[in-house]
UniProtKB/TrEMBL annotation:
Belongs to the MoaC family. InterPro entries: MoaC (IPR023045), MoaC_bact/euk (IPR047594), MoaC_sf (IPR036522), MoCo_biosynth_MoaA/MoaC (IPR050105), Mopterin_CF_biosynth-C_dom (IPR002820). Substrate binds at residues 76-78, 113-114. This is Cyclic pyranopterin monophosphate synthase. GO terms for molecular function: cyclic pyranopterin monophosphate synthase activity.
Length: 166
C-alpha cells in the first residue's frame, strides 16, 4: 500500500480525519463514468425522445445535486462548500454515453469523492430514465481522471506510473 489509511485510528476503527490544521486551497477533481446501451437507446437520448423527458438535463442536475450531497452518502466525507460543479456528456460510438464531472472548492480537503459521486449519480439517472426502453444498460468505468490542489499536489490518471484503465 502506498500510504497509511488516514480514515482508521491506531486501533483500526473508522474515524473522520481531522483537517483543521490544513490550509484552505483551491481544489479540483474530474471523474468519469460510461453508460453503455443499445444504439437505439442512445439515439432516443440524443434526439430527446425518451418519454420521461430530457435525460441529459435531468442527469446534469442530478450530478450537481449529488456533488453537494456527497457527505450525506459517504460516511467519512467532510461537508465542503462546493464552489463549482459541471457535467458534460459525450457520445462515444453508437452505444456509449460518457459523463465527465468536474467539481471545485476552496477548502481543507479535496473533492475527489464529490466528482465521483456526481458522475455515478448522473449515470444512475440515465439508467432510471431509460430503463423502460432498455433494462440491460450498463454503467462502467467510474474513475477519477484528475485532481488538483492540496498538500499531495496534482494527479492524473494518465500520468506516468499510473495503471492504465481496464
Amino acid at each position: 500500500m502506498a500510504g497509511e489509511l488516514s480514515h482508521l485510528d491506531e486501533r483500526g476503527a473508522a474515524r473522520m480525519v481531522d483537517v483543521s490544521a490544513k490550509a484552505d486551497t483551491v481544489r479540483e477533481a474530474v471523474a468519469e463514468a460510461l453508460v453503455v446501451m443499445q444504439p437505439a437507446t442512445l439515439r432516443l437520448i440524443l434526439e430527446g425522445a425518451v418519454p420521461k423527458g430530457d435525460v441529459i438535463a435531468a442527469a446534469r442536475i442530478a450530478g450537481i445535486m449529488a456533488a453537494k450531497k456527497t457527505p450525506d452518502l459517504i460516511p467519512l466525507c467532510h461537508p465542503l462548500p462546493i464552489t463549482g460543479a459541471a457535467l458534460e456528456f459525450e457520445p462515444l460510438g453508437d452505444d456509449t454515453l460518457r459523463i465527465e464531472a468536474a467539481v471545485r472548492t476552496t477548502g481543507k480537503t479535496g473533492v475527489e469523492m464529490e466528482a465521483l459521486t456526481a458522475a455515478a449519480v448522473a449515470a444512475l439517472t440515465i439508467y432510471d430514465m431509460c430503463k423502460a426502453a432498455e433494462k440491460g444498460i450498463r454503467i462502467e468505468g467510474l474513475r477519477l481522471l484528475e485532481k488538483r490542489g492540496g498538500k499531495s499536489g496534482d494527479w492524473r490518471a494518465d500520468a506516468p506510473g499510473q495503471p492504465p484503465p481496464r
